[in-house]
């Protein structure tokens, strides 16, 4: 019937939209006809001899979408030949089936969806790069001459690949996030198989020799592997998150990469040839098999459940064990070991003897570690951060060049320091009262927040840097050595006197010296002087001749400055409120930065070398002096009394004017200007002609501005905010990449958007009636407060970010583009459903879409998921395995949660009134916040690595489970029924209890606690001993 309809529509059989009779098809191709043809089928079974067609046989078939050529029942039939090759296939072709194709290579159109070329003579499909973004299926089975497949990494929709019996194929690369099936039986020459980023692939058939290389990186859904060929020597399984086990490994295997195999619990026997074994982020791995003797590197970072290690091979050189939180002990370390990394091994209490070859040891955040064995002689650096229980250090070797100790809270003293130590950094060593004798070659000494430190020993003559911050009890300083170049003193409340500054001194920084009124004589070598928050400082001494930088912040009482030396290059004055004038600026001066100098009325003559002037909140300044040709940047902010600008120099590249309320006009803009930023210039009505090289143009709250002049062709960023009288825009330049229009109330129409546009935002343009066609290159679209918008046109395929806010009447969304990564919907009140979410989506933010009752399936790549004020939502779909942040606000009807993914790190539940129970919390969870979950009565076991726990307005919560040892912040607000607390972990730093009415007793407070808030705990009868760190 269909063929009859097509036949009746056309008198000329060669011009019908579909051709299937052999004579019609042959005649059209032979004479290069058929411009109206959309589909053709050619059955070669009717041939008695080979046909020869010209290379341009398809050139006029511009509408052809379906092409089928082949022999379906005879293997010896005649064929179609192209003696001069085939130039091209029609650009609109979507389906191509060509059995026994005689061509050796073929260029495919970008619109192609399915390719079927069984038993072809193809040796390779095409040369170079082809962007086949729509291709979904390939079948080249029994193409025995096929040697090489092209790189299919851009075929992101590819689902099925059939290559049965391609005996000559040696290499295959497919990087498609949509791939579901790959059939390779009989590919007896295949040596390399790369399936990187095939996220939907769940299984792989048994592979055969001579395969040597197998890459399955980012195959997220792959659960099982079949038997591996004995020829395999390289196997990559990074990020195969669902893979639970491995088959027997071939003895030839030399490289095995298993990073990010979250669910892998056990390993098979390892081959003896293996040299490197990366197992980072194998979260379920509890133990290891016997390690091969040739192993040189073993990586076990983030193996959370690993408790013990087997015997380590003698050849091992590098052992990273960072964040193995359950690891309690180590075996004997091999003599060849050079690097050992044990950061965040929370339960590790002791270390074995360190081998003599060890050069590097990292022990950051080993909270239970109490001691360190003797250090080997080759050791040259020690880094200890957050080793809270470490009280003593071993003897430090003479070869040690640097020592860093951060938050070793229990450390009371240091051993003798080695003579060649050059750097000593001590941060938050709260109990440290004294330092040993400092070595003669020490060049840098940093002491921060050493609260009990009362004095310093004699400073060595080699010292060049001395930084002393928040050492509250330090009252006196020793004599500063003559070599000292850089000296920082911050927050020294008890310091009674300042030592004499050495003559070689070149940098001085003083912070929070509230009572300092005068400075001593400054050394002649000083090049940098920074004074912050010296609120009582009234004057400065004579400035030295070498000074290049003068930076004065919050020196409120400073009224006058001394004469500037000729060497001065940069002057920054911030919040010097009483300063009335400046001295003459030196001729070499380059930067002038004046902020909140309220009483400054005039500026001196500007030097010819000046290139940047920033004036912020100089309220009394009425005018500027002449601007010289060297100036490239001029910033004026909150200069309220400024009415006119002087002539702008020809070299000016950037002009920013913020809140210059009295400014009525601008002078001619120089041709070199690249950035023009005009904000809150209320009285500005007209703009001069814009210069030809302008690239960035920002207008904000210029309320009187009614029109814009012609935009320059070089412009690539245009932002118009709160230009309420602006009714139209000029033609947009072809180079424009960013366009933001906010609060342009009277704007009714937009010009055509240029094809270069990548970023487009519309906010509260109340009179705008419709959107112009969106360019295909657009990747960021923001539509905010467009209340009359009811539907969206087709979205461009390249779009990666989509924000729709306050589109009250929007009821439906079209299909979302496959490239979309971030999708935000806020206050779209009439929206009832969402389309299918693209597989590339990583962030989904849905707020105040009141009528949305159901959600589509969440994509596997989703990492951030936020739901706010979904009053009708009763259930959630299955959560994807990659999710690490889940936030649910005001989902009042939600009674339960689905299973939480193993990757989840943050969980926030706010105003979920009917939620009574939580599912099992994943071990990866680091932050849990429960606010106003009124029906929640109890919790299951808390995850072992939780660091932050908040319970607010959980009215029925009576008891808490055991708190994890990693917890550092614990908040309980308005938990009215809570009667007691469990034991507090030793890591706790902050405890806040507000309105816990029934709470009578507190457990013992840990020694690490530094913040304790107790408000309205009405029944609390007593407090135990307060910790010293509070």
Automatic annotation (TrEMBL):
Gene3D superfamilies to which the protein is assigned, alphabetical: Ribonuclease Inhibitor (3.80.10.10)
Matches recorded under InterPro entries: Leu-rich_rpt_3, LRR_dom_sf
Pfam families membership: LRR_3
Superkingdom: Eukaryota
Entry keyword set: Leucine-rich repeat, Repeat
UniProt-recorded name of the protein: Protein SUPPRESSOR OF npr1-1, CONSTITUTIVE 1
Organism encoding this protein: Mucuna pruriens (Velvet bean)
């Amino acid at each position: 019937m269909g063929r009859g309809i097509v036949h009746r529509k056309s008198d000329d059989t060669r011009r019908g939209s579909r051709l299937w009779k052999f004579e019609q098809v042959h005649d059209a191709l032979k004479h290069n006809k058929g411009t109206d043809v959309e589909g053709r089928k050619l059955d070669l079974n009717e041939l008695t001899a080979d046909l020869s067609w010209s290379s341009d046989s398809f050139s006029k078939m511009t509408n052809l979408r379906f092409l089928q050529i082949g022999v379906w029942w005879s293997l010896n039939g005649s064929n179609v030949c192209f003696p001069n090759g085939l130039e091209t296939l029609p650009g609109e072709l979507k389906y191509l089936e060509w059995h026994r194709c005689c061509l050796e290579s073929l260029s495919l159109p970008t619109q192609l969806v399915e390719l079927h070329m069984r038993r072809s003579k193809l040796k390779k499909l095409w040369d170079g790069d082809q962007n086949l973004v729509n291709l979904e299926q390939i079948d080249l089975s029994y193409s025995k001459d096929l040697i090489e497949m092209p790189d299919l990494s851009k075929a992101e929709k590819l689902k099925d690949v059939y290559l049965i019996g391609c005996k000559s194929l040696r290499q295959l690369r497919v990087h498609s996030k949509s791939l579901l099936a790959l059939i390779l039986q009989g590919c007896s020459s295949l040596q390399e198989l790369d399936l990187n980023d095939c996220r939907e692939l769940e299984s792989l058939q048994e592979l055969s020799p001579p395969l040597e290389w197998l890459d399955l990186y980012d195959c997220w859904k792959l659960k099982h592997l079949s038997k591996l060929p004995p020829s395999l020597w390289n196997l990559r399984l990074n990020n195969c998150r669902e893979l639970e086990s491995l088959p027997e490994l071939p003895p030839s295997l030399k490289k095995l990469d298993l990073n990010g195999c979250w669910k892998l619990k056990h390993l098979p026997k390892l081959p003896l040839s293996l040299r490197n074994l990366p197992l980072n982020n194998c979260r379920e791995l509890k133990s290891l098999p016997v390690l091969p003797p040739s192993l040189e590197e073993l990586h076990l970072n983030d193996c959370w459940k690993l408790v013990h290690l087997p015997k380590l091979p003698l050849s091992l050189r590098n052992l990273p064990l960072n964040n193995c939180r359950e690891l309690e002990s180590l075996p004997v370390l091999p003599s060849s070991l050079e690097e050992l990394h044990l950061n965040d091994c929370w339960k590790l209490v002791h270390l074995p003897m360190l081998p003599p070859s060890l050069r590097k040891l990292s022990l950051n955040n080993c909270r239970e570690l109490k001691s360190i064995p003797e250090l080997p002689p080759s050791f040259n650096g020690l880094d200890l951060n957050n080793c809270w229980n470490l009280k003593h250090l071993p003897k430090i070797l003479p070869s040690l060049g640097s020592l860093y100790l951060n938050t070793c809270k229990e450390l009371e003293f240091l051993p003798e320091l080695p003579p060649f130590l050059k750097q000593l950094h001590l941060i938050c060593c709260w109990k440290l009262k004294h330092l040993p004798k400092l070595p003669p070659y020490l060049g840098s000494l940093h002491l921060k927040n050493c609260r009990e430190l009362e004095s310093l020993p004699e400073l060595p003559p080699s010292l060049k840097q001395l930084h002393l911050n928040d050492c509250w009890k330090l009252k006196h300083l020793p004599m500063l050595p003559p070599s000292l170049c850089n000296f920082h003193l911050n927050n020294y409340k008890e310091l009674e006197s300042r030592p004499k500054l050495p003559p070689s001194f070149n940098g001085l920084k003083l912070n929070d010296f509230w009572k300092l009124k005068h400075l001593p004589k400054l050394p002649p070598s000083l090049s940098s002087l920074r004074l912050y928050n010296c609120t009582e400082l009234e004057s400065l001494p004579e400035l030295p001749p070498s000074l290049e930088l003068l930076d004065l912040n919050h020196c409120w009482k400073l009224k006058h400055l001394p004469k500037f030396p000729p060497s001065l290059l940069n002057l920054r004055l911030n919040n010097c409120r009483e300063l009335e004038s400046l001295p003459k600026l030196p001729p070499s001066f380059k930067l002038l930065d004046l902020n909140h100098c309220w009483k400054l009325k005039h500026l001196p003559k500007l030097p010819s070398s000046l290139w940047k002037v920033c004036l912020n909140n100089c309220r009394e300044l009425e005018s500027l002096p002449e601007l010289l040709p060297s100036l490239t940047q001029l910033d004026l902010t909150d200069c309220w009394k400024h009415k006119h600008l002087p002539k702008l120099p020809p070299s000016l590249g950037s002009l920013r004017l913020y809140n210059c309320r009295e400014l009525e006009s601008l002078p001619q803009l120089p041709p070199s200007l690249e950035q023009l930023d005009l904000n809150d210039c209320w009285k500005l009505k007209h703009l001069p002609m814009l210069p030809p090289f302008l690239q960035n143009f920002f207008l904000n709250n210029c309320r009187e501005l009614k029109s814009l002049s012609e935009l320059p062709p070089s412009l690539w960023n245009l932002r118009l905010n709160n230009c309420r009288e602006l009714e139209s825009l000029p033609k947009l330049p072809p180079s424009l990449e960013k366009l933001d229009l906010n609060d342009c109330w009277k704007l009714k129409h937009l010009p055509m958007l240029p094809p270069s546009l990548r970023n487009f935002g519309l906010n509260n343009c109340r009179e705008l009636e419709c959107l112009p066609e969106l360019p295909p290159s657009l990747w960021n679209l923001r539509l905010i407060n467009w209340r009359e918008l009811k539907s969206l046109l087709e979205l461009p395929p390249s779009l990666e970010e989509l924000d729709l806010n306050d589109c009250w009447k929007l009821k439906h969304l079209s299909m979302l583009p496959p490239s979309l990564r971030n999708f935000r919907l806020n206050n779209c009140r009439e929206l009832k459903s969402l389309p299918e979410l693209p597989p590339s989506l990583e962030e989904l933010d849905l707020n105040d879409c009141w009528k949305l009752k159901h959600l589509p399936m969440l994509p596997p790549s989703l990492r951030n998921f936020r739901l706010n004020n979904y009053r009708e939502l009763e259930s959630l779909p299955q959560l994807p395995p990659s999710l690490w942040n889940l936030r649910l606000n005001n989902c009042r009807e939600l009674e339960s949660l689905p299973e939480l993914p193993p990757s989840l790190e943050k969980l926030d539940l706010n105003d979920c009134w009917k939620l009574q129970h939580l599912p099992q919390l994943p071990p990866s969870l680091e932050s849990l916040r429960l606010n106003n979950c009124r029906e929640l009565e109890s919790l299951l076991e808390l995850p072992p690595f939780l660091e932050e726990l908040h319970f607010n307005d959980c009215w029925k919560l009576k008891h808490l489970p055991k708190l994890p040892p990693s917890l550092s912040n614990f908040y309980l607000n308005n938990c009215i029924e809570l009667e007691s607390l469990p034991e507090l972990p030793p890591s706790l730093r902050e405890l806040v209890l507000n309105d816990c009415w029934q709470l009578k007793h507190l457990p013992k407070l840990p020694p690490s606690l530094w913040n304790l808030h107790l408000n309205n705990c009405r029944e609390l009868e007593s407090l135990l001993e307060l910790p010293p760190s509070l």
